[in-house]
Structures are given as C-alpha cells and as structure tokens.
Structure prediction request, 346 residues.
Amino acid sequence: MEKKFDQNYLLRTMQKLIETPSPVGYYSEINPLMEQLVNELGYTLKFDNRHTAYLTVPGKDASRTVCICSHLDTLGLMIRKIDSDGMIRVRSLGGINYHNIDGESVTVITRDGRRCTGLCVCQSHSTHVFDDARTLQRDEDTMMISLDAPIHSAEDVKKLGIRNGDYIYLEPHFQLTRNGYLKSRFLDDKAAIAVILTVVKFMKENCLKPACNILFSFPHYEEIGTGGTFVPPGVEQFISLDMAVIGPGYESSEEKVTICAKDVVTPYDRDLTNHLIDIAEKLELNYAVDVFYHYSTDAGAAIRGGNNVSVAAFGFGTFSSHGMERTHISSIQNTAGLLFGYLMEA
Prediction:
C-alpha cells in the first residue's frame, strides 16, 4: 500500500503540523494551517463552538456517515505563577512526564500573541551547584521556566506581556533519519493527521469515493480526555486514528499498525474491531492487536460521553510516547493502508 500514497507530501505535511504550536486548547495557529492544507486539497473545513475542525468527504452511500477522529492538541504547559525572582512556575496540559522535559527549549505565547523563548529546568538545575540536582523529583513543584531574557524580578517578566494563564509550547525537534525513523515530540497525533490528509489527497487525485460519507474530526482536547465527548448527529461509527504505545506485554512495534481492542476504560466495538482486523489481513498489512493500559483515545471519550456510536481505534506504533517519540515510516505506511482500506469498505 505504501506505493499508493505521496510519501513526500506526507512527511512535509507532518513536519508542518508538528512545528505549529497546538498545546491543549490552543487552536489559534493550527486551525488556520489546517484550513490551508484542506483548501489545497479542494475541500473546506467547518468548525464547532469548541473549535473542533471537520472535513466532510462525500461517499457512495450518502445515507450513512462514519467519523474518523485525530486530535490536533499536544502536550504543553501553562503559567500558574511568576516567582519574585522572575522564574515561572507551570501546570501541565496533558500527561507530561517532567523528567522528560528537563532542559527542553520552550516558547511562551502571550495573550496578545507575543513570544518569548526560555528553558524548562529543575530548580536544582546544575550538579555544580546543587547537591540534589540528580535526585530531586521533577514535578510541578520543582520545575520552572527560565526566560531567555535579562530577568531579575516578576516585574521584568510582566513587562514582556507575560501573565498567568499564558501557554507554553515545547520544541518538537522533528527529524527523519536516513533509514526511515521519525523522531519528534507530538507525533501523537500530528502524524495521524498527516496520514489522513495524504489518503484524502490520494483519493481526490484518483477520483475515488469512500463507501459512505466520511466526517474527519480534529478536536483540541484529547490529551485531557474530552476531545471526543461530542459526536455530531448522524454518525454511526467513530474511529480514533491515534498513536499506539510500545512496551513489555504489547505486540505493537515501530513497523506495525496497531488495532486497539481495549483502552484503560472500555473495550472497543467487537464487530468494528473485527472488521479492521479483516481489512488488515486482506491487505497483508503488518499489524498487531493490543489491549492498552494508561491509554485512552477520543473513541473512548465518545463512549464515556454517552454517544450512540460503535467505536474503534488504530494507529502507528510509537516508542517513548509522550516524550521524544519515535516511529518508522513503515508503521505510518501501514496505518495509511488500513485507513484507506477502511474508507473503501466503511
């Protein structure tokens, strides 16, 4: 299936998406980029009151609609306090591991759109100075942002227009290795959105229609568990296209597309999951089926929200999830293959 899709477009689009800030609830930059990308494919985005973006692709059977959901939001931080010495204290947006972001470059985005770069560090930031630099727990009480500016007081910070409630964006460090590994923060879930746009592009260029109407949904609150709680009327099936985790006890890998049979809360619909497995088998995709713990998707949120839909989830295997993530282009290709196969048979 990998030969069907424009890999250069996929990788360029993925990098654009990843390098555009969109921590949970910050839609001001990523939604305009999505509009541009979708318009280039000949479609139009619509938005609801939560700023969720929707792309509708008409299908052969106009009486049925299924939803494919991939979230635009990423992990991030928000300012909660400015110390008297000008150091900034934060709260997390989503499931951040503070040990993972010690020493990361960040950008503060003010309410009026100004930006100031900085460094996310532990308050015991140097082994040359602090006895507990190696052992102090990294959490919201010990981590701070030091701005790249001559800051000596809280007032110096405020003069830059920075206030409590401002968003902080982590640098993603997107890389593609010569042997096909993708390394970056926020592959979750920007890689999945790039897959969707690439498959839509392929279908458009080859005059292919999906089996029924497809509503692609791109919410902004998945990382806090509420992205899929609202499902538009008329949707019968709801599938999350999201990353799959890798670790002991799982069959997921950086080469496979993984079908999620159950998340931390709920099993996914048996018939729909079986249908995805049948498609993967028929297309001879490299795939796995897994039951995940410490993991949920917008499909799970759709069930928790009381929506009358059958749900499923699948996606690319991701090493070091919610950190500096890594996958291989073969996993992305297998994911694109399964998405395309499902759209043709939905």
About this structure: The radius of gyration is 21 Å. The longest helix spans residues 187-205. The mean pLDDT is 97. The chain has two domains: 2-74+186-345, 76-170.
